[in-house]
Each structure stands twice: as C-alpha cells, then as structure tokens.
Amino acid sequence: MSQKPASDPIGHAMLAYLHGNKAAELTVHSNVADEEPLPASYFFRSLWEMPELERTALEECRGRILDAGAGAGCHSLELQSRGFQVKAIDASPGAVQVLQARGVQEASCHDLFELPANEHERYDTILMLMNGLGLVGTLDGLQRFLQAAKQLLAPGGQILATSSDISYLYEDEDGALVINLNGPYYGEVEYHMTYGEETGASFNWLFADAGLLQDYADEAGYQVEFLDEDDSQQYLVRLTLKQQNLANN
C-alpha cells in the first residue's frame, strides 16, 4: 500500500503558480483573525514589488547568507543576482522544488531547528523576512533559536529579521487592550493553510513586539538594533552577538 504524501498546501500552491496557474491561492486560517486569502503570486514578487522593509534588509545583507523560510526564493534570487552566496531553506518540500526550479543554487528542505550546525556552515547573515521571526513559533522557540543561532553565525555575523506587534487585534472599541495576562503571550498565533481541498497541519507563529524581543535578545547575549518600521507596526531588526559572546562562540 503506497504511503499518502504529506500535506503541503503552500508548496502545492507555489508549484501550481510556477506551472502556469497564476490564480493559485491559499486560504490562511488562524485563531486570532478571520480567514484570509493569500495569492501564491505573493511569493514570486520582484524587488520593486517588495515592501520597503524587505528592500532595506536586502541592502544590509553581507557575506554568506542563510535565507530561512525562503518560500519561492524571491529574496534568495535577488541576493544571488548581486553576487552573494545564499543557502535557502524551507520546511515545505514543494517550496524547495520551486526554489530549485527557479535557479536557487543551494536549496534544502529543513525546519529552522533541524539545520545542522558545523564549522563549515557558518553564515555572515541569517535572513528571516515576511514576518520571518515567526518561524521560531513561540517564546520558547525564540529562546531556542537565539541559542542555536550562535552556532550558525560566523564571527561578526548578523540576524536580519522582521516581526510585528499585533496587540491592535486585541483592542476594544475605546482602543484599550483586552489581553489575558495569565494566558499565553498574545503574539503566539496558531495557523493552518488550505489550498483547494488540501488542509495543512497546524503550526505556531510568533509575532514579537519590539520590547519583548529586546529583552529576550539581550538576555541571550545579543546587541539589538532596530533598523526600520512601517505603518503596520512591522519592524526590521538586526541582532549581533555582544563582544563577550563572540569570545565564547
């Protein structure tokens, strides 16, 4: 009996778009908002279709780059065109097929926490765009990632990531926040995606407000520099290891 292929709605939507179905569209479901459509075309944006935060992040990239959650490779391909050596990773097998088909030179199917760390795989830039810090999933995942990244960063390396403060989702009619302080952090969101009749597994995504990220990164030994912010409370941050941590890394 053949094994049923793993569900991969995001990968299948991107593959459909790549193969000519320009109307391919995902539906995003979460526990904090109504379902929303997500056109597969969004993952295939050109440089000038990207928001300013992403273009700024690309300008700040340096050295050997790890593009985490690379999707269809719009950032990896732009960086390759500028002469950078880029390794693109994504947990979606379909996304990795798209990356390879579009010409990303190094693409592999990895969860953020499964990436092997060794002396030969150090990166000058770890890039996490499209609210990419969310890949860590939860606050516990953020702590785990900040420690694991120390083994992935080359000396003087940086993490460039975007995230958002979604507290506005919890405002009442008067603008006051209605948050259960005894419950989970409000930025820990549960998602699943559907494409046609295909439903993907649920996954966690973290939206970290700037103050919280500052605290967690400082505790983990990182210098924090907020580079830019947009009108939607999304920000771009650079994390670099403090000097005492570089000595121990």
UniProtKB/TrEMBL annotation:
Q: Does the keyword Transport belong to this entry? A: no
Database matches in InterPro entries: Methyltransf_25, SAM-dependent_MTases_sf
All copies of the Methyltransferase domain together span 65-157
Task: Check the record and name the CDD domains matching this protein.
Answer: AdoMet_MTases
Q: What's an example GO BP annotation here? A: methylation
Query: Sorted alphabetically, which keywords does the UniProt record give?
Result: Methyltransferase, Transferase
What GO terms are given for molecular function? methyltransferase activity
What is the official name of this protein in its record? Class I SAM-dependent methyltransferase
